[in-house]
Write a structure and sequence with these properties.
427 residues, alpha/beta, Aspartate Aminotransferase, domain 1, Aspartate Aminotransferase, domain 2, 2 domains, seven-stranded mixed sheet, 15 helices, 15 strands, globular, binds pyridoxal-5'-phosphate
């Protein structure tokens, strides 16, 4: 596929194609060192172990149910519940890793966090009274694209270096009191956000949940990177939710691998559809059943087997991997100091978790700059403006360090420094 085919889909607003675009952009420059990937380290997917995990699940489930193995095979091979057949494993994982007590019937297993976001927005905003969505910005493009596709009115709220602040949200809500489309929900990623890598302090999480409770709006918490922290474990905002104002979304894409397409949403809320109260989880699963029916039984069994073998702890399963990401983060910071330390006009973040470091350059950068750098200097990164509302400008770029080797980090930062010097001379 050529650049044009990927970047300019006829008839589809560009921002709606954001997820495709992000997934495919580095394939345009196979010769370049790519800091664009939001994937875990590809050689750590451990696919060779998957049949072992599925067998483990089959054995346990057969015993638990008092079945024959054939019954479990039939469960995995047949059509099954749209909500998911291994929700009790996820319930136990949340209790183990985050001390979160949730009911099994509040969980819907989805094809990754992306589907969880789309279905949640669909269930909250379709066929109901009007309402708008606040998106913490810079944002994960998949949430903005999903809101656009569903025609949901959005407000973009600039995050601080500690993520979305309750003060900023309150001041937006105060200006919106008379709106015909009042704010109904807020999306944010408190633990190691994409793209900024910000971490919201616990106290802020608590205050944000309290504000949502007081204003009776929902917080859609995306905890996609929550288990990839480089220090003490951080809890999700959901931990402070005593009144069911938080909808919690997570995924196994970053902890197992993205290709299995497995995530989930936890929602204990009820929603009003055509004048009747329904469980939001049921509504989400109804929408799911009409799209992809359910997550494949074998994938759910794989997750069940992994969780079971690791005492239901995802943190345990990826502990070794997290030390590797931390070393990559350290190496990236080291290289940035090495190549940019002498410049006062370049700065960078030191993320406490997740996959992303943000570098501020001495000039504005957009997608054209990204292409120029990839073509001339064979290193590719993403301009932060790609994670902002259309027309935004920024001097920042996102460097993803999860899926690059130490050598690539070193060489990639060197090439980035050459690009910066060249651009300054050109201007
Ligand atoms: C913040 C955030 N949310 C959701 C997703 C989608 O995850 P999944 O691959 O599980 O659909 C991503 C993927 O990069 C992400 O970064």
């Amino acid at each position: 596929m050529n650049n044009k085919a990927i970047l300019h889909l006829a008839g589809i607003p560009r921002a709606m194609n954001a997820v495709n675009l992000l997934n495919e952009i580095s394939s345009l420059y196979p010769e370049a060192i790519s800091f664009t990937s939001g994937s875990p380290q590809a050689d750590r997917y451990r696919l060779d172990r998957y049949s072992h995990y599925i067998e483990r699940f089959v054995t346990r489930h057969t015993i638990e149910q008092g079945w024959q193995t054939a019954n479990t095979f039939s469960l995995l091979g047949n059509y099954s519940s749209a909500m998911g057949i291994t929700r009790h494993y996820i319930r136990q994982h949340l209790a183990t890793d985050d001390n979160l007590e949730v009911e099994e019937d509040q969980i819907v297993i989805t094809n990754g966090a992306q589907e969880a976001i789309l279905l949640t927005l669909q269930a909250l905003f379709k066929r109901q009274k009007p309402g708008s969505l606040v998106i913490s910005t810079p944002f994960y493009s998949g949430v903005d694209a999903a809101a656009r596709m569903l025609g949901i009115e959005t407000h973009y709220l600039q995050e601080s270096e500690f993520g979305l602040t309750p003060e900023a949200l309150l001041s937006l809500l105060d200006t919106e009191t008379e709106s015909a489309n009042p704010v109904r929900a807020v999306y944010c990623c408190p633990n190691f956000s994409n793209p900024s890598g910000t971490l919201m302090p616990d106290k802020t999480k608590e205050r944000l949940v309290e504000l949502c409770r007081n204003k009776n709006i929902l917080l859609i918490e995306d905890n996609t990177y929550g288990y990839i922290g480089y220090g003490d474990p951080f809890r999700p905002a959901k931990a402070w939710d005593t009144t069911n104002h938080v909808i919690y979304i997570s995924t196994f894409s970053k902890t197992i691998c993205p290709g299995i397409r497995a995530g989930y949403v936890v929602t204990g809320q009820t929603t009003m559809i055509d004048g009747t109260h329904s469980s939001l989880a049921q509504v989400i699963s109804t929408y799911k059943s009409l799209g992809s029916n359910h997550v494949p039984g074998l994938i759910q069994a794989l997750i069940g087997g992994i969780l079971e073998e690791n005492y239901f702890s995802v943190r345990g399963y990826i502990a070794e991997q997290v030390t590797i990401y931390r070393a990559k983060r350290d190496h990236l910071i080291y290289c940035l100091r090495e190549y940019f330390g002498a410049r006062s006009d370049v700065s960078w973040t030191e993320p406490q978790g997740g996959f992303f470091c943000v570098v501020t350059l001495p000039f504005f950068v957009d997608e054209d700059a990204m292409h120029t750098c990839a073509t001339r200097f064979r290193v590719i990164w993403l301009p932060m403006s790609m994670f902002m509302p259309a027309g935004s400008i920024s001097q920042k770029i996102r460097l993803s360090f999860s899926n690059v080797s130490a050598e690539q980090i070193q060489e990639g930062v060197k090439r980035l420094a050459e690009y910066v010097s060249w651009t300054i001379k050109e201007k």
